[in-house]
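Q: What would this chain look like folded?
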Amino acid sequence: MKKIIFILQLVVLPYFMLAQETVFEESRTIYKRDKVFGGHLHTSGWGLNYRYSVYTSGFSKRSYEVEFTTIKHAKEIKTFSSILDNSNGYFYGKMNYLLATRFSIGNHKTFISKQSVRGVEIAYFIHYGVTTAYAKPVYLEVITKNEDNFPITEIQRYDPDRHDRGDIVGKASFFTGFLKGRFYPGAFLKAGLNFESSRQANRINAIEVGATLDAFLQNVPIMADTPNQQFFLNLFVALNFGGKKTE
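A: My prediction, written as structure tokens:
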């Protein structure tokens, strides 16, 4: 949460100060569609998005969006091995990385135009759709013994019943065992405000703030020996860049 507030202060305030230098007085162009690419930070991770919108009027549009995002458990704490000083950090008790892909449809409605607030257009939006999370297993470098009873290191899938802190050297490559995960389907809801202040009428430079809810059909196993969740509610801040088309 503190990270989100700091980013808002760092990005949003200069954004509005710059936007106030320009007052849009030209006649309003009627656009038919737009496309934006962007990235976001939320209270449980980060992600990327692409959005395609069709204007239904001069002040509203229908949007279709795909997002890729990471989701972390609130109890994740990074730790380091006491055996090796240069070991890779890992999250003790973490069984799976959670990667979510969201597909949504939304409505955007402008309620303050650029002509009204010295170059800043403000809109509210609501998106709803489906989300699919992929729980990718965590693999660790652990200490074990060979046939001659000498200690060696191996890459093994984390098992809370077999591995404790004294066995773990560090995390393995993220891509180890990437195809051995499991999918978890669910529903997705997002709502927030969009602040757009590009100096070019056909360009989009926007900041969005709001909240998202990912709701899965069952608890998604991220951590061992810790209650896992079925619902993930997050606050987010996003930066989007793109353009508008008249045809």
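The chain has one domain: 2-245.
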